[in-house]
Amino acid sequence: MDLLYKIFLDPFVQMGTAPDLLVQTLWEGLVAGVLYSLIALGFVLIFKASGVFNFAQGIMVVFAALTLVGLHEHGVPAYLALALTILVMLGLAFAVERLILRPLVNQPDIILFMATFGLTYFLIGFGELIFGGETKIMIANQLGLPRGAIDVKLAGGFVSIQKIDIAAAVIASLMVAGLAIFFQRTRIGRALRAVADSHRAALSVGISLEQIWVIVWFAAGLVALTTGIMWGARSDVSFALDVIALKALPVLILGGLTSIPGAIVGGLIIGIGEKLGEFYWGPLMGSGIESWFAYVIALIFLLFRPQGLFGERIIERI
Amino acid sequence: MFYREAGQFKTNYAADVAVFPILQDRIGLGIILFIAAVIIPWFGSSFLIQAVMIPFLIFSLAAIGLNLLTGYTGLLSLGTGAFMGVGAYACYKLTTYFPNVNIIIWIAASGFFSAAIGVLFGLPSLRIKGFYLAVATLAAQFFLSWCFIRQPWFYNYNVSGAIEVPTRSLFGVPITGATATDTTRYFVVLGFVVVMTWAASNLVHGRIGRMWMAVRDMDLAAELTGIRLLPTKLLAFATSSFYCGVAGALLVFLWYGGAEPAVFDVNLSFFILFMVIIGGLGSLTGSFFGAALIFIMPIVLRYFPPKLGIPIHPATVEHIQYMVIGALIILFLIAEPAGLARLWQIGKQKLRVWPFPY
Amino acid sequence: MRAAGGPDVSVGDVLLSVEDVSLSFGGVRAVSGVSFDIRKGEIRAIIGPNGAGKTSMLNVINGFYHPQKGRITFKGETRSRMRPHDAAYGGIARTFQNVALFRGMTALDNIMAGRTLKMHANFFWQLLRYGPALREEVEHRKRVEEIIDFLKIQEIRRVPVGRLPYGLQKRVELGRALAMEPELLLLDEPMAGMNLEEKEDMSRFVLDVNDHYGTTIALIEHDMGVVMDLSDRVVVLDHGIKIADGTPDEVKRNQAVIDAYLGVAH
Known about the structure:
heterotrimer; A: ABC transporter involved in vitamin B12 uptake, BtuC; two-stranded antiparallel sheet; globular; C: alpha/beta; Rossmann fold; 2 domains; four-stranded antiparallel beta sheet; 10 strands
């Protein structure tokens, strides 16, 4: 009885009595959600265009951030380092297309999925070998990102909002808008959508799959770099961040593998749900439920709607 | 020439349905068992037994477990580490509650706990497939890892948060804990691995193995031949988790002698999966090859360059290890998806026709 | 027309009847209001132009699709929602238009897999591969070897079926279906993509199965020569509607059938 009370009543009473804390928690969930959405967005881009479930997306985030910071540590000016990192991500896209996708074309999805595990481990080893395994600090200031917090008087208390979080939300929105325009309005974008619908049909109208793959992997690389900068500015840069890579998986499940709006909505749901769960229900079970809460939400969700919120229904044929 | 079955005719089906119908295979198996059971404990150094053979055998067992699920039934799992953890913690709890029951029994029994948990997390496999299922098993991984870290009941409220293996004996000879000798522990591990590998081999060569492979290769056609998908998949989850659970219990009780919860994290899951991929999906022999490659490579990397006079930092070893494993995974998936086991087959085929290639 | 005695001989009791079945996928009608029956021991052909709903019909019969309307009665039992494995238990086996074999398994294992339903040794005997499990394995292996001999695929026993040529894959698939010892065998275009010689072989197998084992067969086939030679009765579908039903000769003379095949507007 006491337990039921603690589960079903207590948290809501707390929310009611301290609305500023609720808003604070919601805001933090929102920001975490934005970053999850960005990672999931990278997944979706690649999945739509090449049918590959890219497990390495999260590691690409860390790899991009590490490259940026590592270059800066070696004395490269911040903006030049940024440009060079973009080049590195382009090189990575070419390498992935040439060394993984092309030799594995027409293999079952699950084989490609496992190949991206290989890519994940390779990138971890490679990144640490070159830039060292120790934790680094993101060069947020040098890139002109804002620092510090704003205290907003709200709901009978103060809500503290980090400026970097606002920047993250703004940049993420711009990025999504940019991608949407790219897909809807440009020739390459339309080609990408054609490939997503049917590889064979795309080939038959003369769209080069290789080019498309390089482009989407590069686009995913850029998304990864952006995410890496934002995430790195909030915490530090190291491969311990790979946890966030794994966090993006439930987001995908929730949103559906092929839907960009799904990735965004899924990210926000997971981000907010996780923070609320941790803050209000976490103490009941011993803290740290963040580590699995998202997965359990996704798992329950899968049972009822296997194709995700916005995914297309799969009809099996034989 | 040396490996040729010509002249070995089977006069009844009973002989032909044997797991090793070819004489040379049986001889080879005998030699391997002889080396493992007599030569290694007799002549092997403590380093070989404790740091190489024991963990190699345990990881092979875990790889066999995962292979039953992923290689034979086609269900990708990223929760192996957690299922191993369930085995280890179950064994720990059992032996602290009932210290008088023999530890061998508890190690075997811990597999059942792991199997039950495996079935529970395997339930979604009816509705979801492929990477969706992989994500579902990750849920198991993270949830169980969290339990081992945050729920003090699991580690008997130890201040350190780790579990320590008590000394337990069989016929007066200590087999776990600090006083057990390397050789004793090696024999226990070897016994488990031999018996369980034999049983797994029986399973995959019979009706159940065919049902699993049918589900893997074409689940709809399997259903139309009368195979019920859910029970078949759950049986695979249960059996696989049983193997992983026992491997986990062996890992803690007969190798580490104690464990931090972090041992059973997602990285362990990945390492076992890599053993399966590199060794060969759907091959029991391959599980041993894969475990050998993934487990022994770091040891070689660590000890050989210094001997050759090349100074190498331990951290660098780890980075190189990650890179090499990553590259190997991709390489194997591209060049030989059936893994080392397939190379072994090809080798045998070459031997069969040697010295005339055609 | 079949040489062996003409259509009258094979007409037995109704084994399976389809009554007023309709099936649609989100607004697209695949089958509408189709009724026909299949009698014991006959070879029943289902023909029709592409997209006529033939494969959907087979999928309904073995429980893979659930029709929105109508009833299927098999061996006197009416089931509204049958699952595919229920059909297998009931004695319905099936081959597929695009071969659906277990590609990673050998031909022998594929056919052995067809025996799954008949094998009962429990898990623990399986673990030991001893006693009932071993006896069962040997006994069923004998039956499977008979099928292998019958289909003349002895030399490919140990070959993973993914590596076999198409014609042989079709044969192995037939073997797997036969291993189930079905009462009703559904063949979805068993001769598609075969050359003349392979077609003749396959026709011979189909007739032999029908004669030796007394298995009732329903088959979809595009090759009219084959259909006319093999089948006792033919049902013709077009755009999901039944347009004719009768002996090969009757169907051949039917105006609606001729129109459907020649593409007269209707």
